[in-house]
Each structure stands twice: as structure tokens, then as C-alpha cells.
């Protein structure tokens, strides 16, 4: 079964139509999705800046990671749930949106970045935990994460402009 | 010149026409505005969550607050600069939106609160402030910032 037909079917289920046509529920979900940037990206940015040695330099990296990451994760869960609802409200529209695809790609790369970090340099965090400015590789991880988060926000915002810029096909 | 006249003059001035007619100017500035949301969110939450006792319990509030303040200022710089540009694009629309004024009121309140009460409480020695005071201050800060953010989101709704 191809994806397009699946999303077409999904978009015609009654809950999807109701969500799409509801004025306030949809906007409420959208608002939560956007404002949770402050929790999800916000705490992630502070962790990344610590990895780059740009803030909280007197706090050990492991402290920043273990204490802030739960908030990043909580924010991420909210993002995924509200994001899934926004997708469900208009599956075909999202699926065909070039910025949506770009955003999902950047999201996967960001996850890979975290995974690599945890599997590699973070295993030896004891060696550089209290360094105000961590080793080069760690700083790169932080910078890559920041760039990907910026791309995710950008692509997400641009999703609204696809029809306006490229016309509705 | 009344405020409304000023908004009108601003909105219909030459450079503003060009800005509004550009299909990418507003989206790009709005995107950078959103990135500012992340910066402010992170630097505010680090301190407020600590004051609530929900994050980084081993660290002194004062040193966290000092570190975070630099990024809060940068975030505010980004937000206010891009915010003014966004406002300029549709000044007369915002003039009539209640939520815009709610947002501005909350913004002024939170800036004053942050650099008077919150800063003093955060920078005080651990023993000089009662934990309940700290929690209250953190709560007020979060509520005010949330009001600013919600107001901002509502401004954009159709």
C-alpha cells in the first residue's frame, strides 16, 4: 500500500476531518506545539551551549545533561504528541509539504547526533566533565545540535508558506 | 501624532511597503523570532526550575542566574529586534488586537520583574531567602513569560 493512499484514507477518517475543521481545538494544539519550543528547544539549547563551553561553565556537563535532559524529553513528548495531531489533521497536506519532509529529515539527524554523542564521547564524560570548555568533538556535537534545531524551527515555520510560495498543485 | 497615526505612517512608509511585499521577509524574521523563543525559554527555565527545586539542585542559584542572564539578554535582543520588524509590517493590524497589548503589558511587567525582584532573589545567598519566596518568584516569572508567549501566538491566529 503506498503512503499517499494511506494518508488520503487517514485524512478522511472522521476524527481527522473534525480536528481539521474544528477552529479552537486545532489552534490550541498548534499553540501548544509552538510554545513548547521554549521547553524542548530551550533546554536543549542550554545543554548544547554547555557542551560548547558557552554557558554554565562552572557546572559539570553530566549535571547539566542529567538534570536538564528530563525537561528536554518531556518537551519532546509534548512536541511529538501535538505534532502527530497536527499531522493527523491534514495528512496528505503535510506529506506533500517539502518543508515538512525537510523537517522530519533534520529531526532524524538531530536524533542520530544525540545517539552518537551518548554512544561515544559522553561515555568518557568523566575525563572532561568539569572542563569549562569541553574537548573539540564535544563542542562540535553541541554546534551540530544547535544548527539542526534551528533548521527544524525554520522548516516548521516555512511549512505554512509552501502554497503561498510554490502555488497549490 | 496619535499612536494610531504613527502605526499608519509606519506601515505605509516606503521601506515598509518593500518589506511587506517581499514574500520571504516576514517568514524569515518570524522564524528568527521563534528561535529567540527557544533562547529565552531555555535561559529562563534553567533558573526558574532551579528555584522551584526541579532542576540542578546541587548548583547555586546565583551562579546559574548569572550565566543564564547573558543568554536571556541575547534572547531578548533577538526577540525585540525581530519583534519590532514584525510589528512594523502590520502595525495597524496589531494596534487593534487586544492580545497584542496583553502581550506588551506582560512583556514590560516581566522585564521589570526580572531585573528587580527576580534578580535580587536569585543573586541573594542561599540562606538569605526563604525557599517559598524563591518558588513564588519562579512561578510568577514562568506565568508572565507564558502570557507573553501565548499572547504572541494569538496575535498570529486568523
Explain the overall architecture.
The complex is a heterodimer of chains A (169) and B (158). Chain A is an all-alpha fold and 169 residues long. Chain A has one domain. Helices cover 78% and strands 0% of the residues of chain A. In chain A, helix 4 packs antiparallel against helix 9 and helix 7 runs antiparallel to helix 9. The radius of gyration of chain A is 19 Å and the shape is elongated. In chain A, 34% of the residues are buried. Chain B has 158 residues and is an all-alpha fold. At the A-B interface, helix 3, helix 4, helix 5 and helix 9 of A face helix 3, helix 4 and helix 7 of B.
Radius of gyration of chain B: 18 Å
Number of self-contained structural domains of chain B: 1
User: End-to-end span of chain B in angstroms?
Assistant: 29 Å
The 3D shape of chain A can be described as elongated
The percent range for helix content of chain B is over 70%
Listing every helix as H and every strand as E from the N terminus to the C terminus, the arrangement of chain A reads HHHHHHHHHH
Runs of chain B with pLDDT <50, length 5+? none
Per DSSP, what share of the residues of chain A sits in E-state strands of 2 or more residues?
A: under 5%
Amino acid at each position: 500500500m503506498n503512503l499517499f493512499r494511506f494518508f488520503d484514507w487517514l485524512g478522511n477518517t472522521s476524527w481527522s476531518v473534525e480536528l481539521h475543521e474544528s477552529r479552537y481545538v486545532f489552534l490550541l494544539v498548534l499553540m501548544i506545539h509552538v510554545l513548547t519550543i521554549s521547553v524542548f528547544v530551550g533546554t536543549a539549547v542550554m545543554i548544547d551551549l554547555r557542551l560548547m563551553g558557552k554557558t554554565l561553565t562552572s557546572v559539570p556537563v553530566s549535571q547539566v545533561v542529567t538534570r536538564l535532559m528530563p525537561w528536554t524529553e518531556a518537551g519532546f513528548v509534548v512536541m511529538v504528541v501535538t505534532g502527530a495531531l497536527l499531522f493527523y489533521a491534514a495528512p496528505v497536506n503535510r506529506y506533500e509539504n517539502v518543508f515538512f519532509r525537510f523537517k522530519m529529515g533534520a529531526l532524524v539527524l538531530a536524533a542520530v547526533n544525540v545517539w552518537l554523542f551518548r554512544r561515544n564521547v559522553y561515555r568518557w564524560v568523566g575525563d572532561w566533565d568539569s572542563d569549562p570548555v569541553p574537548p573539540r568533538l564535544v563542542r562540535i556535537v553541541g554546534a551540530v545540535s544547535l544548527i539542526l534545531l534551528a533548521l527544524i524551527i525554520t522548516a516548521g515555520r516555512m511549512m505554512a508558506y509552501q502554497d503561498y510560495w510554490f502555488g497549490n498543485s | 501624532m496619535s499612536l494610531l497615526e504613527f502605526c499608519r505612517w509606519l506601515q505605509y512608509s516606503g521601506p515598509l511597503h518593500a518589506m511587506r511585499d517581499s514574500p520571504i521577509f516576514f517568514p524569515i524574521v518570524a522564524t528568527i523570532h521563534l528561535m529567540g523563543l527557544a533562547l529565552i525559554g531555555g535561559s529562563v527555565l534553567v533558573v526558574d526550575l532551579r528555584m522551584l527545586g526541579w532542576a540542578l539542585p546541587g548548583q547555586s542559584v546565583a551562579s546559574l542566574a548569572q550565566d543564564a542572564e547573558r543568554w536571556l539578554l541575547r534572547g531578548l535582543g533577538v526577540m525585540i529586534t525581530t519583534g519590532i520588524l514584525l510589528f512594523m509590517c502590520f502595525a495597524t493590524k496589531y494596534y487593534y488586537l487586544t492580545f497584542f497589548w496583553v502581550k506588551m503589558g506582560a512583556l514590560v511587567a516581566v522585564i521589570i520583574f526580572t531585573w528587580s525582584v527576580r534578580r535580587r532573589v536569585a543573586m541573594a545567598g542561599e540562606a538569605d531567602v526563604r525557599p517559598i519566596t524563591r518558588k513564588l518568584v519562579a512561578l510568577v516569572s514562568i506565568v508572565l513569560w507564558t502570557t507573553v508567549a501565548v499572547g504572541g501566538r494569538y496575535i498570529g491566529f486568523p
